Amino acid sequence: MTEKKSDYKKLFSNTLIFALGSFSSKVLMILLVNVYTTYLTKAELGINEIIQQIANWLIPVVTLTISESVIRFGLDKAYDKKQIFTIGNYACLAGFAALGIILPIVTVSGVADKYLNGYSLLIYIYIVAASLKLVYSNFLRAIEKVRLFAVNAIVNTLLTLGGTVLFVVFMRMGNKGYLYSIIGADLLSVVFMCFAAKLWQYFDPFHPSKKMIKLMLYYAIPLIPAQIMWLITNSSDTFMTTHYLGKEATGILSASYKIANLVSTVYLMFGQAWNMSAVLEDDSDDRDEFYSNVFYLNQCLLYILAAGCLMICKPLTQIWMGRDVWESTFYSPILIYSTIFSCFTTFMGSIYLASNQTRRSLLTSVIAGIINITLNIILIPRIGLYGPPITTVVSYIAVFIVRIYDSRTLVPFDLKIPKILLNTSLLAGMTFITVMQNVNRGFAIAAYIVLPLMFLLITVMNIKPVWNAAMRLMPEKIRSLCERIGTVKLIALGVLATAFAVVCYLWHIVLTVTCLVVFSAAAAFGVTKKNLIVKLCGLAGIFCTVWAGFGICGAFIAVTVLCAADHIYEPNGIICAVGAVTLAGTVWSVFGVWAGLFTALVLILLAVAGNFVRLVKYFSKDSTK
């Protein structure tokens, strides 16, 4: 039992570390989306998307997917870490040499001018940097230096930020600046990993084991077509959209993936830890139960994340992205829905990796590739940009169904099929409403009410296992405080807070009036019952409501007037102090910070003078006695 608990503890601990490492990079990517959509044209966004997809296709071939062997055998204590790292480097160097010969020939022949478009050298350097970073970071995980892995992610984030500011914002180098920032960050990240982990100690160039080479390649090579087929599923959308609709349409499609990637990003943090646990627990006695519990937690989290993204998809796009790509809200809900099945199939794929059954991964991936290409050819010319998202959903669902049966012959864990059917049906409904609100005014009005309600329903249905897992990751003091409050109350407060925030944005006029009535009633109740706490809570609610609806100046004025009226009705020192603070805030918001400070100083002097007079009167009365 203790060993079983340690398995979950290690999974949650690694998940937290990977999350901390990924958090900075993902927040940066979120913030930089607006920079990219502002400083780069739709055509440049499309070119960058094409270059990234070309690199993604070539990296598995160039590296022979050796990074997967590095982590698989590196985690196994039966194998020598030096051999694994050395063979990983040799595989990469051989691939770089082959690419260095083939790419110039392709460029000179002009076969791929439509896609390479004069970027051959940059693509080559991009692939070299990304491949080395992938292999080295996977080796850090293999030797269980997960904290250094997380630190490296943060370092890479800071380097990317610096490069973006330099090349894209200041030097205005466009899409080339975007590529320079990524390449520079990846190369410097490799240097950082080498020195931080002293990776040269694991490099033994003169004694590679032929047996180990054969074993690692036998494991990795079947993954090359498997990864390519998945890349076809993911990126054939990009190439076919460019072919049929042009680069600007590709830029819109690229923007459509941004919100969907938020869901897959959160899963990636978990997935990195899960891949390690799947390998380490492959031979354990309670493996099936372990897989069942982890998949149950995984799907509950995905449902909540997908529902939340669907609910805020349209407003988030308008806040987050440039106006030129707001059209992406027509397509991003469908892609958000597809990420659920994408993450499910990735989870199933970890079973093949842990069980050394990589050929099965290839066979199931072929299905996705065939469906994706076929449907793209049929749908894109007929329904435009709706084609790629619909194709992606169908491909992932098909592969998920196949893997349900195939992967469970290796690990027969419980998927909880009824739960999957119920939640994915609700999310399909949310997806339909989110798409239709862009084209039908009736749906737009209904969406303001239905989407938050469906989000709350899905959250209530799935929150318990997610909350229990979060409790395990909390520090002891915070966990004990939460336990005293009670799980039900905390979840209820979270749901109410979320509902309040959603309605505040989506239906702010009606909500503002409603909240003003409620908080005014609370303040009046506090006045009549002489309950200072209720009165102050009512004032705070009025302040927040007016601020949200009419701005900070209106909030200060409202509270100032209410405090003055209340002070006349029933003088009170605390209410007087609140009124004085809000009066200073009003002056500051209208006339500037110096006027606000001057008003505050005058009020302080008046308060001191008033208290001085009271003290004089008090002591004079005492002396007469």
Summarize the structure in words.
This protein has 625 residues and is mainly alpha-helical. It has 3 domains: 11-221, no CATH class; 228-505, no CATH class; 508-624, no CATH class. It is built from 25 helices and no strands. It has helices spanning 2-39, 42-63, 66-74, 81-109, 113-116, 120-142, 146-170, 174-197, 210-220, 223-245, 247-280, 287-311, 313-320, 332-354, 358-383, 387-407, 417-436, 441-473, 476-485, 487-506, 508-528, 532-550, 552-569, 573-591, 593-624.
Secondary-structure topology with pairs:
Elements: H1 2-39, H2 42-63, H3 66-74, H4 81-109, H5 113-116, H6 120-142, H7 146-170, H8 174-197, H9 210-220, H10 223-245, H11 247-280, H12 287-311, H13 313-320, H14 332-354, H15 358-383, H16 387-407, H17 417-436, H18 441-473, H19 476-485, H20 487-506, H21 508-528, H22 532-550, H23 552-569, H24 573-591, H25 593-624
Helix pairs in contact: 1-7, 1-11, 2-6, 2-8, 2-10, 2-11, 3-4, 3-6, 3-9, 4-6, 6-7, 6-8, 7-8, 10-11, 10-15, 10-16, 11-12, 11-14, 12-14, 12-17, 12-18, 14-16, 14-17, 15-16, 17-18, 18-20, 20-21, 21-22, 22-23, 23-24, 24-25
pLDDT < 50 runs, ≥5 residues: 1-6
Please count the helical segments.
Answer: 25
For the largest beta-sheet, the strand count, sense and barrel status come to: none
Quantity of strands, as a count: 0
Rounded mean pLDDT score: 75
Provide the number of structural domains: 3
What is the structural class?
Answer: mainly alpha
Please tell me what the overall shape is.
Answer: globular
Q: How many whole angstroms does the radius of gyration measure?
A: 29 Å
Q: What percentage of the residues does DSSP assign to strands (E)?
A: under 5%
Order of helices and strands: HHHHHHHHHHHHHHHHHHHHHHHHH
The separation of the N and C termini measures: 78 Å
Q: What is the helical fraction, as a range of percent?
A: over 70%
